[in-house]
């Protein structure tokens, strides 16, 4: 497979290179793509050096698949040009996610929706991905009525500039700011821009994308998304109300059986998922599994995953693996 990674010099892009190598995706030739500024720069992949090219140059090189993580603007402009040239695009930006003609895919949840006609495939929002992997087996068993989620999100989701802001603040160094406020020793209850309804765009992504991926608009979702001074992964407190009664041991067994999910839940030994432990891992970790004692048929969970991995790069590479195994690329 000839694989283009668009945004190869960015945080998610470089994680994509790591994941492609780690999972042994059959890359015969890598085409690292970035902006005009990075053209000619060398990128190392599996011990070989590749020169960075621009998006237009990459189209001419005819990769089999192009994985984009270079921002919404680049995806809006270039994904259709790649697709027209017969190159399948897996796009990590939010540009195509809610387009009814595009599939929004988490392989463990709705991988079966992919067909040969899908030339631009959207990778969901990081916070949504880790939540739906956990919701899926529970929805199948007990039918979810409503989800209330609050997130605790890593600065890596914003990009290099945000990681630099946190580290600079920690060292007392003045520098560029990715956030309107100090993030070190602080919590910012705003991710992305505010919408007219008082929710942020990140919160609306969690709501709308969950319905689209689960293929069920009847699931009610409400979200509060929060940035915290953490590197390593996003955490989520999730309250789930079901249509049907459940047994806690069965919930645990269903989660243990779910592909891509690891249960870490042993209060007696103080074991629960934390971003420090999820960092660099492909799985979604779930713990603090307990009943909401204030309401029938309702469960509380704590979900953690590395947002650059399962929340972005790993999911995109898994989509590529799925396309490859189905003979669609
Ligand atoms: P560059 O490094 O040349 O700016 P991050 O989200 O971590 O900030 O990374 C954004 C990524 O998107 C970088 O690899 C960046 O390249 C890339 N990028 C930005 N604009 C374009 C463009 N017009 N074409 C291709 N890649 C782009």
The fold-level CATH name of the largest domain is: Dihydrodipicolinate Reductase, domain 2
Low-confidence stretches: none
Major beta sheet summary: 6 strands, parallel
Strand residue content: 15-25%
> What ligand species are in this complex?
adenosine-2'-5'-diphosphate
- With strands numbered from the N-terminus, the spatial order across the biggest sheet is 2-1-5-6-8-7
Shape: globular
N-to-C series of helices and strands:
EHEEEHEHEEHEHEHHEEHEHEEH
CATH architecture of the largest domain: 2-Layer Sandwich
- Distance between the ends: 8 Å
Helix content: 25-40%
CATH class of the largest domain: Alpha Beta
Oligomer: single chain
Number of domains: 2
CATH superfamily of the largest domain: Dihydrodipicolinate Reductase, domain 2
Mean pLDDT: 98
Secondary-structure-derived class? alpha/beta
The number of E-state strands comes to: 14
What does this structure look like?
- By secondary structure, the protein is of the alpha/beta class.
- The chain has 2 domains: 2-124 and 312-325, 3-Layer(aba) Sandwich (Rossmann fold); 127-307, Dihydrodipicolinate Reductase, domain 2 (2-Layer Sandwich).
- The protein has 10 helices and 14 strands.
- The strands form 3 sheets. Strands 2-1-5-6-8-7 form a 6-stranded parallel β-sheet, sandwiched between helices.
- The structure holds adenosine-2'-5'-diphosphate.
- Adenosine-2'-5'-diphosphate binds next to helix 1.
- Residues 6-11, 13, 33-35, 37-38, 55, 70-71, 74, 159-160 line the site of adenosine-2'-5'-diphosphate.
